[in-house]
């Protein structure tokens, strides 16, 4: 991308009536939430030794023998990805780009970075949940609970592979185990707040569908393309007034039919956002 191209993107954003941001895993990994095997080895050698885990993603599917061990693992996972990181520069730069615009965010990321970086809570739809909340493991009731203070207590337990039994949370309604509120099975709880944000998302699109609407898609790959990537392409295909900016260093391509309404940036998200901001 040349300086001129970045300037063109900045102008598109400035001139837009509304900006819809769609963000996937590529944005957070570029921002510095590092799920690599090297980091895992460095920060969690005890998990590698005890369970032969190699990285933060595959480890989350491990079948633990006890709830004490399972929560000890999740406390570390949630702390690493959600509690410990401050608002990261990439997200803060992104906020600066749109803070004075009419914006809305849909994201599959569960690390809470949008909310930490200043984006308004009623304009950020975390469609796959959040590390900061927990729910009944079988979704027996439609409510989620903050988990941060509990997890901080878990991190202080003396045994590095087991939390104290009295810290293991149980569902206040049915007594079954609790889970982090991230979508991984059919029991994911979509609570009142989730429903409201889903409705805000639909309303935002409806209100701006005939205006100068710019879709800013960041680091969205093919894990769950049906949530952001395909609907964004469809919106652009069906409405000539809608424009797509796709920033993706791995999967930048778009269909021929929407090429005229798209700018693709085959570049790392952090770098591209900084370039646009400084254009
Ligand atoms: Zn329950």
Short description, anyone?
Helix content is 39%, strand content 16%.
Tell me what portion of residues adopts beta-strand conformation: 15-25%
Derived from helix and strand composition plus strand pairing, the structural class reads: alpha/beta
Are there runs of 5+ residues with pLDDT below 50, and where? none
- Mean pLDDT, as a whole number? 97
Strand order of the largest sheet: 3-2-1-7-8-9
Report the span from N to C terminus: 12 Å
CATH fold-type name of the domain at 1-33 and 86-128 and 190-279: Rossmann fold
CATH-level-4 superfamily name of the domain at 1-33 and 86-128 and 190-279: TPP-binding domain
Q: Largest sheet at a glance?
A: 6 strands, parallel
Overall CATH architecture of the domain at 1-33 and 86-128 and 190-279 = 3-Layer(aba) Sandwich
At the first level of CATH, the class of the domain at 1-33 and 86-128 and 190-279 is Alpha Beta
Bound compounds, each kind once, are: zinc ion
Shape: globular
